[in-house]
Amino acid sequence: MVKIRLRRTGCNNNASYRVVAADERSPRDGKFLEILGWYEPKREGENFKLDLERVAHWQSKGAQMSETVASMVRKAKKAAVQTAAV
Question: Which end of the chain is less packed: N or C, by CB atoms within 10 Å?
Fold first, then answer.
């Protein structure tokens, strides 16, 4: 099964993450299928970006999201609706 989850990058005490679609059996920082976005927890303001079309594509194929990625997708969809309304 495919999971949409975070893959750690960056150096010690300065972690950043890539949002990836990966086989659930592969290790956290191992082989992945596609990069879908990024997340930098220490950055102020906009600290993540997602390709919502590709996330939807993987979900349509049965991919499951981690809790953190699901939260980011909800925030990104909310922001997209707000910008479309303005």
Answer: C
Tally of helices (H runs) and strands (E runs) in the chain:
2, 5
Indicate the pTM of the whole model. Answer: 0.89
Half-sphere exposure of residue 25, counting CA atoms within 13 Å on the CB side?
1
Q: What is the pLDDT of residues 58-84, one digit of tens each?
A: 999 999 999 999 999 999 999 888 888
What CATH fold (topology level) applies to the domain 2-85? S16 Ribosomal Protein; Chain: A; (3.30.1320)
Q: Provide the β-strand partners of residue 45.
A: none
Coil, strand or helix at 22: strand
Amino acid 63: pLDDT: 96
- CA dist 61 and 18 (Å) reads 20
